[in-house]
Amino acid sequence: MSFVLQASDLEPPGGLFDFNATLPLMVLQFLGLIVILNLLFYRPVSHILDEREEYIRNSLTTASAYLVKADELTRQYEYELAESRKNAQNIIKTAQQEAQILVSDKIKEAQKETDKLLDSAYQQLNIQKEEALKSLEVQVERLSNEIKVKLLGN
């Protein structure tokens, strides 16, 4: 009797793939592990991923809504700015026309005043001319009388 064990004595018949009671136990362990991992890990992780996906989707929807609103406000402000510019140009044009009318009225008024002053000066000159002529006539008549008296009188 020998007490030396050989490797062939320890291996059961069938070799590496032995189908005995351990195979169903391993299948049950594997299925149990799958259930436990599903409950403890996969379900919470997938829930977190779903929440994150919903948050991202909501953020994108909100951002799109804000972008549309910003574009609409930009168009509205650009339209209002264009209208304001048109109104400002119309106001400036109206003010220029009013100023032009005011200036031309002032020029006409100054022209009329100048004409009045010229007429007044012309009338004054005519009066002075007539007075000077009368004065000259009187002097001429007096001088002619003196000449006449001197010529005839002596």
TrEMBL record:
Pfam families from the entry? ATP-synt_B
* Entries under Gene3D superfamilies matching the protein: F1F0 ATP synthase subunit B, membrane domain (1.20.5.620)
Q: Which domain of life is it from?
A: Eukaryota
Q: What membrane topology does the annotation report for this chain?
A: Single-pass membrane protein
Molecular functions per Gene Ontology: proton-transporting ATP synthase activity, rotational mechanism; proton-transporting ATPase activity, rotational mechanism
Q: Output a single Gene Ontology CC term carried by this record.
A: plasma membrane
Could you tell me which NCBIfam families the record lists for this protein?
Answer: PRK07353.1
Q: What is this protein called?
A: ATP synthase CF0 subunit II
